[in-house]
Amino acid sequence: MRDVFTLEDLRRWPETAAHETPPVRLAVIGDPVAHSASPPMHNAALEACGIDARYTRLHIRAEELAEAFTLLPKHGFIGVNCTIPHKTEALRLVHRVDEHAQRVGVVNTILVEGQQLAGFNTDGPGLVRAVRAEFGIDLRDLRVLVLGAGGGAGRAIAMQCALEGCERLVLVNRTIDKARALAAELAPMFRTARVSGPGERLEVAAWDDASLRLQLAQSDLVINCTAVGMKRGDPSPLTSAVLQPHLLVYDTIYTAVRTKLMLAADDAGARSANGLSMLLHQGALAFEIWFDRPAPLEKMRAALHAHTGGNAG
Ligand code: NAP
């Protein structure tokens, strides 16, 4: 049973995948994609529900995405998830975008409807459930700093914070202009005076120690949405010197049980969680879009746990 397929395989699908049982009908599309824990999670769900289908990985480069999308309906796919770096381009390529994904500007879940593709976003709602599960508190009651507010996940999460009406939102991104552009879009959603304290409800902050220390002192939750920490040799995106003991630290990365950022949070005396719980909940919401039935959450959680050795809250 193969783990990863390419565009070349997709072009010759009847030959490359005809012998697979159960038949391959779902996938995560990305570059890189080998790290994705979505296949074991979704395959456990499919098996638990008695659905004769398998979920795989499609390693598709940016310039191959448009062609890959045209091949999905032809080869009987039910749907796909999109991950790095395809989430923004996917929005442009699908035929129909649901209202939430349109607002967020990013698609992570696609449903095949006849010969057409419909785009959705479950990252933001998945994060809301994950924060509640990990820390026992609702996003709407928190002052949040989003690190990496220029990428697909950062954008979806920042938009979700705005939709939830969180107390305060600080956007930080290596390329600061992207954070500024996002802040301009979100500004109308932060007009009401809900918060007490010295800072504005919505701010863009520079990625330097002095600025981060100042902003983190006025934050409850920091969410890492950058790709920094995904690779084995990566440093932590934030050092323990800027983190503070009162913070809740959520790292959307789940390639390690204790990510570099979580270790830095430990050193600073802060509570932390990795992105497995977000993966679980965004995946459950995607399953519900594909099959219009509740996802078997406990089976999915157990499969993720077995695959990664981690705890999906
Ligand atoms: P993306 O669209 O490619 O965005 C990447 C982000 O990382 C951008 O903000 C980028 O900043 C930043 N970045 C990349 N390299 C950096 C560096 N060396 N220093 C500082 N910033 C850097 O990717 P994505 O789809 O949003 O995914 C981002 C992360 O979220 C990944 O780690 C992914 O695993 C995670 N994620 C997790 C889940 C989950 O369910 N747990 C779901 C979605 C995503 P610039 O704008 O300056 O390039």
Could you explain how this protein is built, in words?
The chain has helices at 7-11, 13-16, 38-48, 65-74, 87-93, 99-104, 123-135, 152-164, 176-186, 209-217, 260-268, 276-291, 297-308; strands at residues 4-6, 24-30, 54-59, 79-82, 96-97, 109-113, 116-120, 143-147, 168-172, 202-204, 221-224, 248-251, 271-273. The chain is α/β, with parallel strands linked by helices and 313 residues long. The strands form two sheets. It has a seven-stranded mixed beta sheet, with helices on both faces. Strands 10-9-8-11-12-13 form a six-stranded parallel beta sheet, sandwiched between helices. Helix 3 (38-48) links the parallel strand 2 and strand 3. The radius of gyration is 19 Å and the shape is globular.
Total of helices = 13
Largest sheet composition: 7 strands, mixed
Radius of gyration: 19 Å
Helical percentage: 40-55%
Q: Point out poorly predicted stretches.
A: none
Q: What proportion strand?
A: 15-25%
**Distance separating the two termini:** 30 Å
Which ligands accompany this protein?
Answer: NADP nicotinamide-adenine-dinucleotide phosphate
The averaged pLDDT comes out at 95
Structural class: alpha/beta
- SSE string, helices as H and strands as E: EHHEHEHEHEHEEHEHEHEHEEHEHH
Q: How many individual β-strands?
A: 13
The main sheet orders its strands as: 1-3-2-4-6-7-5
Envelope shape: globular
